[in-house]
User: Fold this.
Amino acid sequence: MRSVIALFMASLKAQYEYRLNFWLDTLINGANLFSDFLLMAFLMLSFKEIGGWSLGEIAIIYSIVEMGWGIFRFFGEGLHRFEELMVTGRFDLLLIRPMNTVKQLLLERIDFRRLGVVVEALAVAVFGFTASRIDFGDMWLAYISLVFFSTVMTFEINIILAAIAFWTVRNSDIIVLAFYSTRTAAMYPAHIYGPVLKNVLTFIVPLASVAYFPVGYLTGRITSIIALISPVLGVTALLPVTVLIWKLGLKHYASTGT
Amino acid sequence: MQIVNVENLQKNYTVYQRKGLFREKRIIRALQNISFTVNRGEFLGYIGPNGAGKSTTIKILTGIMTPDGGSAIVDGMVPYRERKLYVRNIGVVFGQKTQLWWDLPVRDTYSLLKAIYGVPESRFKEQIGYLSGHLELGEIMDRPVRQLSLGQRMRAELAAALVHDPELLFLDEPTIGLDIVSKHRVLQFLRELHSRGKTIFLTTHDLKDIEALCQEILIINHGSLVYKGTLEGLKGMVKLPRVLKIQLREGAFSLDGRCTGFIERYAARYDSKTGTIDVELSDTARPANVAREFMQVMEIEDFRITDPSIEDVVRVIYRK
Assistant:
């Protein structure tokens, strides 16, 4: 635990080394997010609904997916840039430390600017709850649980995608295709898409299971009880896959060294 | 007492070469049945030309890579099976890759490593004091790593590998690119570590480093072990002649037919630009007689006899 805290503090200190850049980045990041938020708000005000879902409800799914991503990027910068370690061979240096490799990656480069994403996502959630006249007092526990599942799933997906670099060395295009595009798609009600994309979001990159399905159940738009427990199903199903692929990747790395 | 025991180590790499539309699979045998042992407290120099399999051996011994065949037992453990436990007692320096936190002061890297290895505060203080004294880290302790010169960085790097005071050290080209002064400091420190009983496994291309430090050397070429033993033993293995180097007097560089005939008879090499003649001395030749004969026919400024350098010896071995 001491080593975790030490690495965490080192990340903070390293970023603070470039003070001006740190604050400028934070500012620009904030402005960026705010413009995203404005665009979202503008869309919400111009449309009345998407696929029968009110804009407030959509804001809630958007917020759950977005916050999971924000929390992931807070810890996941090292994982996100995993291909750099493969290209430069610096992954070797993680292997000569008496510590789990994933743990080292998560603590390698904590990105404090991503806290802005969390704040933005929270603001969208407040808007969503207000607009759809859902009492936040009744729902906050459900919301927090869904954010938790969304975060865990984002980690799982990104560990799997990072592990692909054990074989391919470069993986940034795969990340964009398999995560960023599905993440954006999962911010809207999944039934508006064709069956292929809907199935991808449900079974392959199951981000719909942490936002669309449970929120749909809670707002009464989906009746099946499976929709409510789908976050647990999705996260649990991905866990062994994540562990297995990472382990296979490590094994492959150990046998090829590339 | 043995600390490293390597038996029949094998490693193959599969590479794909593009041939027109198709890929052709090719197996590269990086290590072919390598066996050797290292005793506790030994200072071992590990050399070989590029691509000979040095890095592969180091990667296997540091637990980064698994071999395809054979076994490696180091400090009673199999490095690639018990990685997390095993690495606690080794220190590794990769001259080409930094393990320091780039944006943080040098001191912070040491604190982080202290936390990672769980070094108690009192031992940490003592160890940092020791390292700082021998590697002269005082002036760079509070500077961010990115601002250090190569020599300073390499000293900081060595200290980083020793924060947890390991018994066994793997140093992969720790002197690469260093100037004479920095290099001297590093070598001096390695000698000090060795005198404290550490086992050191040093890879380098600089044979002078090896000559200065190592009692034992290990030579690998094309994935096979070529030699393991002392430096003197190596010189005995490859018999290279001593060379008589003659410098002609200025203005007497142009040689007549008699002189060139004389040079041919000795199979000597003559450089007419610098006026130097190299005569290889056979085992039976008596250097004084040869020198006297040359002196009688030419105007000589200076002459000396050189022993084959370790570079010459190793060059012969690499060519095999």
Observations:
- The two ends of chain A are 31 Å apart (CA to CA).
- Chain A touches chain B at residues 2-3, 5-7, 10, 13-15, 17-18, 88-90, 92-93, 95-100, 251, 254-257 (CB under 8 Å).
